[in-house]
């Protein structure tokens, strides 16, 4: 990667981070050629300015950025050249719409796909309308070779507002670094609201357990009556139904299928807990789970159905064992916002000691 390319990639990374964390960023323009020593210096200065803003927000590392930079610094060792869905550790990058999906024959595939469907991102160098075009296809239609991919199989594009960094990194050879998953499929709403995906950055670190790819952890506080209701449903049905979200649900960071949710019920000096797993999210997955029609699971208040089953619990522990947790920050109506890796690890240790 030459100096100009490196500078452009750094700027694209800074621009993306500034957008995600709502930071102030004014790029430093440079008209130098590749032999100019100021090219990377100016990009580095921009990055240092952004880091100062991140530190003021208490952010000392960004997982997807660190993994991308590792792959750029050591391309011969860490660029992922195998199929994109080999079992690897992955990090949340962004959630966005699938652009223009309605133009790519949805009548041929809409009924056959569900939320959780694996997607691939493929650089489209022949797109005359978007210099940074990145197409989207189902993983089953992609054999890992972007140069020989048949674009007749695409289902849409990454929106232009979200594709610059992805395109630049693919241009540097990181074609399989980004993977995606269909996370919203709705029958109603605008085109942007009805079909959405979550994009991840995958690392070169392989996983032994495929489910570990998609396991984030969330938490929610419930009162005694709700906790008792959860216990009764688990005992009688083996699963519990919840209605969370609102319209559009994509604006909230709620659990996906296979994610875990910790339910906490404070009671005096002790707290009771359940550790549960999301078995289905959305009317299509839930309909299969419950053996009903999806239309039967659409609610007038625009919430989305979630079905969870128990992993561990009920567990009763002293509040002092939860000192790692700020109870004031735990939501009460729905588990919005994934827990940090440190908090997730604390909960894992807590339940492992049960």
Comma- or semicolon-separated keywords:
354 residues; alpha+beta; Alpha-Beta Plaits; 3 domains; six-stranded antiparallel beta sheet; five-stranded mixed beta sheet; 9 helices
Give a topology summary.
Blueprint: H1 3-21, H2 38-56, H3 63-73, H4 75-78, E1 88-97, E2 118-123, E3 134-138, E4 156-157, H5 164-171, E5 178-185, H6 191-194, E6 195-206, E7 217-221, H7 224-237, E8 240-245, E9 260-267, E10 270-281, H8 283-290, E11 303-318, H9 341-352
Parallel strand pairs: 7-9
Antiparallel strand pairs: 1-6, 2-3, 2-5, 3-4, 5-6, 8-11, 9-10, 10-11
Descriptive report:
The protein is α+β, with helices and mostly antiparallel strands and 354 residues long. It folds into three domains: 59 residues, no CATH class; 125 residues, Alpha-Beta Plaits (2-Layer Sandwich), CATH 3.30.70; 143 residues. It contains nine helices and eleven strands. The strands form two sheets. The protein has a six-stranded antiparallel beta sheet. Strands 7-9-10-11-8 form a five-stranded mixed beta sheet, with helices on both faces. Strand 9 and strand 10 form a beta hairpin. Helix 1 runs antiparallel to helix 5. The longest helix is centred in the first third of the chain and has 19 residues. Keywords: Hydrolase, Metal-binding. It comes from Phocaeicola massiliensis B84634 = Timone 84634 = DSM 17679 = JCM 13223.
Determine the number of helices (DSSP H or I, runs of at least 4 residues): 9
The domain count comes to: 3
Average pLDDT works out at 83
Q: How far is it from the N-terminal to the C-terminal residue, by CA?
A: 51 Å
What's the β-strand tally?
11
Q: Which term fits the overall shape?
A: globular
Largest beta sheet, briefly? 6 strands, antiparallel
Q: Note the beta-strand portion.
A: 25-35%
Structural class, by secondary structure, is alpha+beta
What is the string of helix and strand elements? HHHHEEEEHEHEEHEEEHEH
Q: Helix content range of the residues, please?
A: 25-40%
Low-confidence segments: 76-85, 207-213
Rg from Cα: 22 Å
Lateral arrangement of strands in the main beta sheet: 1-6-5-2-3-4
Protein name: HIRAN domain-containing protein
InterPro entries: HIRAN (IPR014905)
Keywords: Hydrolase, Metal-binding
Domain HIRAN: 91-207
């Amino acid at each position: 990667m030459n100096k100009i390319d490196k500078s452009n990639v750094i700027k694209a990374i800074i621009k993306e981070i500034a957008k995600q964390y709502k930071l102030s960023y004014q790029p430093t323009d440079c008209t130098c050629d590749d032999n100019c020593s100021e090219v990377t210096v100016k990009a580095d200065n921009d990055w240092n300015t952004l880091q100062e803003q991140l530190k003021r927000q208490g952010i000392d590392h960004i997982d997807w950025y660190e993994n991308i930079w590792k792959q750029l610094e050591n391309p011969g060792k860490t660029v992922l050249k195998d199929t994109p869905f080999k079992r690897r550790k992955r990090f949340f990058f962004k959630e966005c719409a699938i652009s223009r999906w309605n133009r790519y024959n949805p009548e041929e595939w809409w009924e056959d796909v569900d939320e959780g469907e694996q997607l691939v991102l493929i650089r489209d160098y022949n797109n005359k309308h978007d210099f940074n075009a990145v197409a989207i296809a189902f993983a089953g239609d992609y054999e890992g070779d972007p140069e020989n991919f048949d674009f007749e199989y695409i289902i849409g594009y990454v929106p232009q507002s979200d594709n610059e960094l992805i395109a630049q990194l693919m241009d540097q050879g990181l074609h399989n670094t980004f993977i995606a998953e269909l996370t919203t499929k709705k029958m109603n709403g605008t085109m942007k609201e009805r079909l959405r995906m979550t994009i991840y950055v995958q690392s070169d670190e392989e996983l032994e357990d495929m489910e570990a790819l998609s396991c984030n952890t969330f938490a929610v506080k419930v009162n005694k009556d709700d906790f008792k209701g959860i216990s009764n449903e688990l005992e009688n049905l083996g699963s519990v139904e919840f209605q969370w979200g609102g319209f559009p649900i994509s604006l909230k960071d709620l659990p996906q299928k296979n994610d875990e949710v910790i339910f906490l019920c404070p009671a005096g000096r002790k707290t009771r807990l359940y550790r549960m797993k999301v078995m289905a999210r959305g009317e299509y997955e839930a309909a299969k789970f419950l053996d009903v029609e999806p239309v039967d699971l659409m609610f007038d208040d625009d919430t989305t159905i979630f079905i969870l089953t128990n992993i561990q619990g009920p567990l009763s522990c002293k509040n002092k064992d939860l000192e790692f947790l700020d109870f004031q920050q735990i939501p009460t109506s729905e588990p919005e916002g994934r827990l940090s890796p440190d908090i997730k690890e604390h909960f894992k240790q807590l339940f492992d000691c049960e």
